[in-house]
Amino acid sequence: MAKDTSTGKDKIFSEAFVEKNQKVISIVLLGIIVVVGGIFLLRYMKTNKNNDAQREIFQAQFYFEQDSLDLALNGDGRNLGFLNIIDIYKNTEVANLSNFYAGAIYMKQRDYNSALTHLQNFSTTEDILQARAYSLTGDAYMELGNFSNAASEYGKAAERVDDKYFSPTYLMKQSLAYEKMSNYSAAIASLDKILKDYVGANETNDAKKHKARLEGLASR
After folding, report:
1. Which H or E run contains 161?
2. Domain residue limits at 155
3. What is d(CA 188, CA 212) in angstroms, rounded to the nearest whole number?
């Protein structure tokens, strides 16, 4: 029986290949080490940066809760405001949250375009907060007369939370946006969703009344 020498040949070939390409292999391995090390370093730096930002945001949040909006937005000369945090601590969770606060402040100050800029730069996995951001975005579009975009944002808000405590409020707003467009069928559909999907919601009676009114408008 012939002896299988393929394994031995493969081993010799592998050793020869490594020996011949040792320099290239060393460079590749070094490159991998540098990349992996770089990833861990960036994560470490990002974590530290976010921790620093968390310490900075407390005073801005305090001013926001006290309705001292200019101080919350721009700082007081000693403590950073939300806009400073967004600029200094880019790509951190705290900067992301600061966009939400900044958007909410600009809404109160009736600077709707600035509100849109910051609200659209905000995102979170927290459903209630994200839905609130969508709703504020819808409010900004409503004030700017862009009822189509407003209706879309209110719909996203209602879908994101999908419960009888928050969704009906957003659907009522969506219905109003559609009414502003004279799209009565869509406005009625938003109210029907409240009545069918969120039975017992506080907005039920208002939804019924507005539906009757809209049906009257649609029949003219």
Report:
1. helix 147-161
2. 124-220
3. 9
With a cut of 70, which residues of the chain have pLDDT below it? 1-50, 53
Asked whether the whole model's pTM tops 0.90, one would answer no
Q: Is 37 part of a structural domain of the chain?
A: no
Q: E strand or H helix at 176, and its extent?
A: helix 167-180
The per-residue pLDDT for range 130-140, each reduced to its tens digit, is: 999 999 999 99
CB-side neighbour CA atoms (13 Å) of 142: 21
Question: Is residue 140 located within the same domain as residue 207?
Answer: yes
One domain, residues 137 and 219: yes
> Three-state secondary structure along 142-157?
HHCCCHHHHHHHHHHH
- Total count of domains within the chain: 2
* Look-up of token digits 């370093």: 41
How many Å apart are CA 172 and CA 100, to the nearest integer? 23
Please report the pLDDT score of residue 50 as a whole number: 62
The beta-strand segments (E) located in the chain are none
